Request: fold
Amino acid sequence: MAMLFMIGAACFAAPCINEVWPGLISHWLEDVDTINIVFFVGSIFFTSAAYLQLLEVVNADRRAELEAGVTPTNPFTWFSWQPNQIGWLSAFIQLVGTLFFNLNTFDVMLSDLNWLQQDLLIWTPDIIGCVCFLVASGLAVIEECHSFWAWKPRSISWWVVMVNMLGSIAFMVAGVFTLVLPSSQEVLDLYQINLWTLVGAACFFVGAYLTLPEMTQWKRPAMLVRQQAHN
Reply:
């Protein structure tokens, strides 16, 4: 899951780096069609990672039992409806957001769209996806902090949700600038789109990377439980 999020974030970041600092990475990323394909591929990685995240949530009890060395009482499930669980809501809403990003990045590859079609097919799903990410990140913050805010800099999980929240905010800012103006037939501000998308992608990359040491923290208590049970 962490690696998929990191690859997706890298796919979103790379074209933006080349747009903000032309020629810094590679000249092949200056081609518009290539850039659009990279964004779409990145959105698929985001969706795959988001589904694995949801899968982790719906099988959380089973995973905890396995890590504790106990025979699972619940069967593995590919999906379950748990809207009363804040962790499930966060993961599910983020998955929905990635699906809108799939639609958004695919529609960008369509040619000969007028300003209205671009706003309906590209800007609208982009904004909806950004809102989903904001809501999902907000719920993750509440779940981790047990309130709307808490200062827990010693907690890796706190850094994960806070960095992802910053990424969601940056994506939202970038989404606003993707609005196509009827007067000019162009987006509101291409430079701001790339800049804030780059900031958001960097945040999501860091947030995904931090889940790796966070995972080792989760495993330590389970290892202790198994050792104690063995003794």
Remarks:
- The helical segments are 2-20, 32-58, 60-67, 86-107, 115-145, 156-176, 190-230.
